[in-house]
Structure formats: structure tokens, C-alpha cells
Amino acid sequence: MALFDGRMREVGEPRNPYIGRPLPRFEDLRLVRGAGRYTDDISVPGEAFAVFVRAPHAHADITGIDSAAARVHPGVVAVLTGADYVADGHIGMSHFPNPADAIDVRVPSFRMAGERGILDELQLPLAVDRVRYVGEAVAVVVAESILAARDAAEAVRVEYEVRPAVTDVVAALAKDAPALWPGAPDNVALDQDIGDRAAVEAAMSGAHLVVAQSIRNQRTASAFLEPRAAIGSFDKADNSYTLISGCQGVHRIRQPLALCLGVPPERVRVICPDVGGAFGSRTNLYPEQVVVAWAARRLGRPVKWTGERHEAFLTDYTARDLLTSARLAFDRRGRMLALALELTANIGAHTVSYVPLSNGYRVAPTVYRVPLACVRLRGVMTNTVPTAPFRGAGRPEATAVMERLIDIAARRLRIDRVELRRRNLISRDELPYRSATGLTYDSGDFSGNLARALKLGDWDGFAARARVAKKRGRRRGIGVANYVETPVGMPHERVALKVAKGGERGSAARVDLVVGTQSSGQGHETSFRQVIADALGIAPEAVNFVGGDSAALASGGGTHSDRSMRLAGALMMETARGVIERARRIAARMLEVAPADIAFSDGLFVARNSNRRLSLFDIADAIDEIAALPEDLRGPLAAEAAFTGRIAAYPTGAAVCEVEIDPDTGTVEIVGYSSVDDGGQAINPLILHGQVHGGVAQGVGQAMLEAAVYEDATGELLSASFLDYPMPRADQLPSFAVELTEDPTRGNALRVKGGGEAGITPSPAALINAVIDALGRRGIEHLDMPATAPRVWATRGRALEAGDRFPGP
Predict the structure, then answer these.
(1) How does DSSP classify residue 36?
(2) C-alpha to C-alpha distance for 764 and 742, rounded to whole angstroms
(3) For residues 279 and 482, what is the distance between their CA atoms, to the nearest angstrom?
(4) What is the CA radius of gyration of the chain?
(5) pTM, to two decimals
(6) In this structure, are strands 737-741 and 668-678 parallel, antiparallel, or unpaired?
(7) pLDDT by residue (tens digit) across 685-712?
């Protein structure tokens, strides 16, 4: 029998599970038709419009703000400053910078540099006494129209006393560097040593080879497709705030926002509509979100702000910006002995996050058998916009370091680079394996992934392709990178399920799935429905996905760090079981049998040795009509579950990248990219493939093109538009050859590891290794990203001047 009413089948009829099906995304039809609903698409009755006055200096004292002319400008409602904000009794933003694996994110776990308590310097949403990066907001103009607000903002006069600025971590650590904060006179906000340094140094002193390399992972812009926006409202009747804003977790934003406004979290509602790109950079609270909520209360009407692209470049939290000093020791057979790292991160003007640093040390050995490791972590403050987690958050950086060191060592040891990797890969027989930095890998076929990636990328056929390319005047190179991830994220999640009665909300009976996490493009509306459909034996179309509203659920964690399916998926299974067991007891009453005599299959509750059966929806419709129903079974057919803690997972894989270089111009062309990725069980392979493709594009974009560049003397951002900040285009990327695999994990009910960061973690390493391979086998051991044409051409020139061979025409 075919599907009945889109929900159930005949008893005993086999059903093809939805988990594992490459279903097209339900949300795509809405989005590609232009029916998406983003923050700027929303209008609130009576709203006024905000424009921010931003600092033109990277470091300066504010000596005066004259807003008189702006206040009398036609249409202006108010001009507000940081002094007004502080006078109203509000405080700065608590970002709670923490290591990635912290359980209670409210308690800082890292030791601050010198125990000086740099966290006391909370970031005010409007600067009061001093600005510390170009673009920092000093005032906000609120007007009846956006044009009036823009005109009036130009009339605000701010007087500054300019101070020396510093934008580079090395310069910021110099003794004579300008200090950003009194609590950190040396600009060091975090200084932490991890591991047994004495043991590492002893191993290195007896090593056959120690490879040392300084590697810079440049700063990149978040470059959301949808610029940030926010709408703040205040309800005087119950002293409550509402913030509408694209983010990565409404509860993650609500907590610090409530602290700023001085109200309990339950007095703050955060709504997140569709989001046009997030990647981690929308996880933390932003100043503009605080200001529109505060201004709404002060002015007695909603306040809306939509950022422009130039503001995005200046103020969106940026990514990466890490300097790594690395040493890796080998014995004569090429076995790794010890790893020593110094990770120095440019965290910008405010301490928003240490997650990339903590991830960087945790995953530093990646998939290799490194017996000993020690790491020094430093977070350095500079006159730049703060950095925050961005897709991968420390894992691509760590992978780039390890894979470059191995290639350098292979050349010096005269061992094939693939063979050197194989000798040091952790074998499946060694699992569970505890790494030198404290991670316990429970699964992963590291050698198998490498072998499959090499075959997929036709590694053995490369030499022939390189000879053909040479005849065309091009130089081919090929690179490989193995990787493992350590997804963590917020350690709390909540899910609620409710079987709605037929006719509720004027529609057919449905199951409402309410989640504390939310989507910013990951396809949750589809993959989450697939999980519930299988668990309850219904069609995905019968599931109503609800997310992005803090009023819909008491708590949640948001989407980042490959966490959503891993945590919410387990809770979905738990709530589904709760609904089924509750429904089983009710069905027993309805069918007049014992609960033990009710079997559940394919969405039907069947009395044993009988053809009597009920669907979930039959039971939900009948609850109120059942006489003598016990009190604990009355009310909606629903269940709710929450979890606080860690569910470890280790997505892993390998990638091969092949490039061609024009020796005369230095232009790099990607001619092949292959990867094998173990993200655990693929709930929806189509979505997972898309996640890998998107991650690869971002990773090779950084490796080839992207860099946020500040002028040393002034702190001005030189790459403040897409004219100066190149992004990868479709014609610069080949068709990717991507395969999914699974080495099962027992860490969660769905065997999910994560796939959102799979593409970006190995791709920068694979591409840079390929570029250096193309540049020749002698002399050139390293090239910092991005591998732009001028940089590649200049590197080749330096090698030629030094007498090193470059296989040019």
C-alpha cells in the first residue's frame, strides 16, 4: 500500500529509511525563489533607523563629541553616545573567552597573562574614552529614515588625540610597542604553557633531524553574503526586550545581551530569521546588537540597523591571524619524536575568543603518532578588529603547520613524502589512541583515507601530467594533506517534540520539532526532518521545523563547530523515544490491552495478535476524549530533552590538490582537487557533499587570494572592499572529486562526527604543498599564504637569484 495521508504505511510493509537519503533541501525552494526572510526584510511598526559614527583612527583618545548639528538635522530622533549608555547603568559585553572544551562557558578557564584579569576590560558597544581600531563605533544617530540618519551622522564632530597604533603581533610584543589596555601593558592577554617542555627538548636534542619553520596564517575577512543587521524593540509593559538579528544561536546571544542591559535572560527574546552566511563569526555578540536594543528602550520605539559592506570589512569579527613557530623532530627512519609549538594569535583590540588557539594546540599532532608535544599559547592585543572563530577555528591552522613540516622533512630525509606520512600515521589497531595533547581518537581509518585520496587524485599518474604541462610552458605541482577535527562548541543543547492535533494551525496533523540550535545554511530543515521521520515512522514533510527563537525553547547552544547534529541529533532520538513510549501507554488504553502488548513500527501502534492499529496522530487527536486517563498522560503528546556536557567526535580524511603555475607571471591554477572525508554517518549525503565543497572553496580562497591587510603606521585597513579583497570565483575552481566514508564512532546514537568543516581543514595545506612542489624540489621550502601571483613570482625570483634550480622553460 502506498503512503496514506503522507504519514503511514500498512503494517509489515518495508520502508526505505530517510537517514542516508540525498534528499534535496526543503528550504531551497523558498530561498532560490527569493522568498527568504532575512533581518533587513523585516519591518517593525514605528521603527526608526540607526547609523553609526565610526572612528577613523586605530588608536586615539576621544576628547570631545559635538552632536549639536546632527540633533537638529531634519528627521533625527536622537544622537546617542557611549556616555549615555554608561549613564543608563549598562556594562560592556562579556564575551567569555575560553578554551574550546570548557563545560561552563561563564567561567574563564585559561590563565590570563600574569594573572592580571584582562577580562575586566569589557568591550563597550560605543567607545567612551578611547578607540582601539578603525571603525569602532563612538556614537549612533537614530532618525525617521535611513537617509536622514546618514546625513546627520556626517554632521557629528568627534575630536581625537591620536596615539601610536600597532597591528602586527610581532610589533605588539616589542618592548616599546604602544599598550592598548592598562591591564596588559605588554599587550599579552593570554600566556599559557601546555605539555612537558623538558621532555620535548630532551627528545629533540637526541633527534636525527629537527625541522623548524615559522608559518604565518594570515587574517581573513568573514565576507558574509548577507551583511549584519539588527532590530531592537522594548516592551514597557513587562520590561522586556526583543532583538531580531541573524546569528548562530539565539540563546548564545541572549545571555551576554541580558548582562549588558541589566535584566534577567528571560526578559530578552532573540529571534534569528534566515542567515546569509555565518561561519562562526556570528556566534558572539556584536556592539550593534546591544545598541539597537538599548536605544529602543531609551527612545520608546523600535530601532533598526543594517550594515553596509564597508562597515562589514571594518567591524565584522575577522579570522585566523596566527603566527606559529614550529619544530618537529625525527629519528633516522623518519619516525616522529617530538613536536614543539609557539602559537601567537592576533586577537585584536578586545578578547572575544580564544577558541582558535585552544583548538590549535589540542589538534596539533593531527593524525600522526607524536609521542611528545609542548605548546606555548599567546593571545596578543593589537589595534585591529577582534578575531573570532571562523570555519575550522584552529584546525586548518594546525593542519597547515603539520603538513608543511612533513614535506620539508621528507626532502631533507630523502624519503618520499607519502611514505613519510604512512610511517607516522596512527593505525586502526592503536585505537582508541590518546594523543600527546590529550585527545582520545575513538575511530578513523587514517591510512585508508590517505590511500583512497591518492587514488582518487591519481597521484601515480601525476608525473606524466607534469611532463605534458612542461611542454606547454607550465609547471605542475601536487600536494597532499591528512587531517582530523576536534568539534566541540557550546556544551549545551535542548530539543522539544510535539505531535500536533489534526486541524491545529489550520493544517494537517504534524509533528513540531523545536530545536535550540539553528541553521545558517547547513540544511537543518531537511536533515533534522529526516532523523525525526525515521524515528517516528512518518514522512519528512509531516515535520514542522522550528528554530531561531529563544521564546520557543528555554535554552540551546546554536550552530558551530560541527555540533548541531551531534548534540541535537542525540536529543531528537531521546525525545522521539519519549513520545513513542507515552503514546504506547495511551494506545494501550485506547485498544484496551496492556502496554507490553503494543508494538510500534512505521509510525503505527499495533495491538499484538490483532489488526487494530493507531497512528501518532490518531492518539494525539484522541487524548482529550479518553476517559480516566492518568494525570501523567494528559496534555499534548510531547517530550523535551536537554544535555550539558561533551560528546567527542573526530571527523577525519585526506585531500589531494594539483596545481599549474605560469612561471612568467606566478599565476596559480587549481587543476584538480580530491578528498575523502569521514564525517560519520551521512544523514543526507547531498548536503554533506555541499558542505565539503563550500569548505574547500573557502580554504583555497584563503590559500590563493585572501588577506585582510592593515597599514603598519596608521592601522588603516587597506583591504576594505572587494576591489582590494579578492574572493574565489567559480571559474577559479575545478570540479571537486569528493568521496564520503565512515569509520563508525560509538560516541552518539546517530554515529555522527561532523562535516561542516571537512573541506576547509585540509585544503589550505594541500594547496600550499602543491604550489611549493611546482616551484621546484630545491631551495624553496615554504611559502606563506596567500599564494598570489606576485608572491609566487617573487619567490621564484629569489630562488633563481640564490642559484637554486627552478624547472622553468
Answers:
(1) -
(2) 23
(3) 22
(4) 28
(5) 0.91
(6) parallel
(7) 999 999 999 999 999 999 999 999 999 8
